[in-house]
Amino acid sequence: MAALDRVKVLVLGDSGVGKSSLVHLLCHNQVLGNPSWTVGCSVDVRIHDYKEGTPEEKTYYIELWDVGGSVGSATSVKSTRAVFYNLLNGIILVHDLTNKKSSQNLYRWSLEALNRDVAPTGVLVTNGDYDGEQFADNQIPLLVIGTKLDQIPETKRNEVLTRTAFLAEDFNAEEINLDCTNPRYLAAGSSNAVKLSRFFDKVIEKRYFLRDGNQVCHFS
């Protein structure tokens, strides 16, 4: 069997938001029984069928790079993480729906990865003070995923989801909200599964295809 082409997708967000549990669920369709803190970066692989069910269907490897979310000293930690940001093809931004700060910090995480040569300045956005110009020229596909949906009381869900909905709009990305301890949130045919598949298709197209659909030359 010929080796499959692959794309690199970063999984970014604060410590404790559930990135490792999410990656395990995405790659193995199983709940991670005993998640631990990620030191540095952990890489797992998901098999994805691009344009599934069409004549253009082709199987790819999706490398999911789970980057440790420790902030620490901004300069030293960022310079250490910078090596993981090379040659990225897509970014999944993960936040904890019960933690407002983790949502605000997604702006810092995205800018750190997209502008890895720029010195970090900490949290770049607070209280909804958002500068759309920061992402105006971004060509890297983004996906926003909110975790721990199960920990929000039913009476509060609408309020919380309304508060976080602006993230997807700001990043020009689709949004998925789920509970990483319940695989049904990503069940085949569900709206979340469709959004995820669409995101991976977009990442592959940006990596391997021109806008007119013609395949481009590439190097592994």
From TrEMBL:
Offer an example of a GO molecular function term for this protein: GTP binding
Instruction: Show the CDD domains listed in the entry.
Output: RabL3
Q: Which InterPro entries match?
A: P-loop_NTPase, Sigma_54_int_dom_ATP-bd_1
Q: Which UniProt keywords apply?
A: GTP-binding, Nucleotide-binding
The protein's matches in Pfam families, at most eight in alphabetical order, are given as:
Roc (PF08477)
Q: Which domain of life is it from?
A: Eukaryota
User: Can you tell me which family this protein belongs to?
Assistant: Belongs to the small GTPase superfamily. Rab family.
Q: What does this protein do?
A: Required for KRAS signaling regulation and modulation of cell proliferation. Regulator of KRAS prenylation, and probably prenylation of other small GTPases. Required for lymphocyte development and function. Not required for myeloid cell development.
State the protein's name. Answer: Rab-like protein 3
Which organism's genome codes for this protein? Erpornis zantholeuca
The organism's lineage is: Eukaryota, Metazoa, Chordata, Craniata, Vertebrata
